[in-house]
Design a protein that fits this description.
Elements: E1 6-10, E2 18-22, E3 34-37, H1 41-51, E4 54-61, E5 66-72, E6 78-84
Parallel strand pairs: 3-6
Antiparallel strand pairs: 1-2, 4-5, 5-6
């Protein structure tokens, strides 16, 4: 996948091995520092909300086939939590 601002590189022999390069997040007001893919982003969202952590990008269905949200960790880093639809 190459949207110009984000490129997803996937191993042809192991599709679960991926590297995503982001120059800027064109779909959010903040750039994430890292991404974590989870099986159930809605469950992760509810678990994170229950801790009182700062959600910096609401849970969103993106045009390129993912559902995601951003949370700020205790060190101030922004984590993109994502699942493929």
């Amino acid at each position: 996948m190459n949207l110009g601002w984000v490129v997803n590189l996937v191993s042809p022999s192991n599709p679960t091995a991926q590297v995503i390069l982001i120059t800027r997040d064109a779909a959010a007001s903040v750039n994430p520092d890292l991404s974590v893919e989870v099986d159930d982003v809605d469950a992760a969202y509810e678990a994170v909300r229950a801790t009182g952590a700062e959600i910096v990008h609401p849970i969103t269905d993106e045009q390129w086939g993912v559902r995601r949200f951003f949370v700020r960790d205790p060190n101030g880093k922004v984590v993109n939590v994502v699942s493929h639809r």
